[in-house]
């Protein structure tokens, strides 16, 4: 059975006003939010949009032992159910 849940690590950086989100394995996939909750929600949307255009998803990084984080940064895993995402956004009327 295919698992529609996709999980990727993202680097969250607080700049004093916004939480910027950059996906480690999804090059060019980034977003932001004014709160952690908003940033996480926006990250799910950005990841869904990015992955929706791919046939084969990249393998998510799991080893962060060589990653240096600044005081205002943390890594969190962001997940999305791609089947739900596609049902929500890919319904097109003709």
Shape: globular
The whole-angstrom Rg is 14 Å
Overall pLDDT: 91
- Which structural class do you get from the secondary structure elements? alpha+beta
Are there runs of 5+ residues with pLDDT below 50, and where? none
Q: Report the biggest beta sheet as strand number plus sense, adding barrel if it closes.
A: 4 strands, antiparallel
Per DSSP, the total helix count is: 2
> How far apart are the first and last residues' alpha carbons, in Å?
31 Å
* Major sheet strand order: 3-2-1-4
Secondary structure: number of strands: 4
Order of helices and strands: EEEHEH
Beta-strand level of the residues, as a percent range?
A: 25-35%
Q: State the share of residues found in helices, binned by percent.
A: 25-40%
Task: Walk me through the structure.
The protein has about 90 residues and is of the alpha+beta class. Helices cover about 25% and strands about 30% of the residues. The protein contains 2 helices and 4 strands. It has helices at about 35-50, 80-90; strands at about 5-15, 20-25, 30-35, 75-80. A 4-stranded antiparallel β-sheet has the order 3-2-1-4. The radius of gyration is 14 Å and the shape is globular. The termini are far apart. The mean pLDDT is about 90.
